[in-house]
């Protein structure tokens, strides 16, 4: 468990964003939580990031002046989207993911699916029909149909599913983190152009 710098809540690292301060004093998001250095942990929420960015949180935690990229939230969102597409691509190549209504429905009925991925611009009613009569499953919606289709080599894809396992868990956690930053509900279970210099408070 890690404590959020802003809210002081103790949360699982997988639901948070870790930051480190580079040698040049730039604040760097560490989405894999593997970079060397003392970690600064924040809840994966846009309002929390903005509070830390504008009220001296990073500088206090680092105990020095730090440089904050002006598009910090955008950098994190882009990084999470890369992780999401990479995870989906890895699952597809490993035979751990399928797409298309019929195949996804087959996995759901068979109990093979551990996570359903629906395009963010897909029909909610169609998703409910897809899951009808089956056990409750988490549904994430971080990508639109074109982005989801690109992962599967199609022009567009509305539905996909991942087998129960580590890749499904990773995709679910990253989708939740992305949802918190993008301020959209992408997880449910149906029934550097500029820089800002921050100084530590004295």
UniProtKB/TrEMBL annotation:
Gene3D superfamilies: 3.30.1330.30, YlxR-like. Residues 85-164 form the Ribosomal protein eL8/eL30/eS12/Gadd45 domain. InterPro entries: Ribosomal_eL30-like_sf (IPR029064), Ribosomal_eL8/eL30/eS12/Gad45 (IPR004038), YlxR (IPR037465), YlxR-like_sf (IPR035931), YlxR_dom (IPR007393). Residues 2-66 form the YlxR domain. Pfam families: Ribosomal_L7Ae (PF01248), YlxR (PF04296). This is RNA-binding protein. It comes from Acetobacter sicerae.
């Amino acid at each position: 468990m890690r404590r959020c710098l802003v809210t002081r809540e103790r949360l699982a690292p997988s639901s948070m964003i870790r930051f480190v301060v580079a040698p040049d004093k730039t604040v760097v998001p560490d989405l894999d939580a593997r970079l060397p250095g003392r970690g600064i942990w924040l809840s994966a929420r846009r309002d929390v990031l903005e509070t830390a960015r504008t009220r001296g949180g990073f500088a206090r935690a680092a105990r020095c002046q730090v440089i904050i990229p002006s598009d910090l939230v955008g950098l994190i969102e882009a990084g999470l989207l890369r992780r999401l597409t990479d995870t989906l691509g890895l699952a597809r190549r490993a035979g751990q993911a399928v797409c298309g209504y019929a195949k996804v429905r087959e996995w759901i009925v068979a109990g093979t699916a551990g996570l359903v991925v629906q395009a963010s611009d897909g029909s909610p009613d169609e998703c409910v029909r897809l899951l009808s009569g089956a056990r409750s499953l988490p549904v994430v919606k971080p990508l639109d149909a074109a982005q989801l289709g690109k992962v599967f080599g199609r022009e567009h894809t509305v539905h996909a599913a991942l087998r129960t396992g580590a890749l499904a868990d990773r995709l679910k956690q990253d989708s939740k983190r992305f949802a918190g930053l993008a301020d959209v509900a992408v997880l449910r279970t149906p029934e550097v152009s500029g820089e800002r210099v921050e100084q530590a408070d004295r």
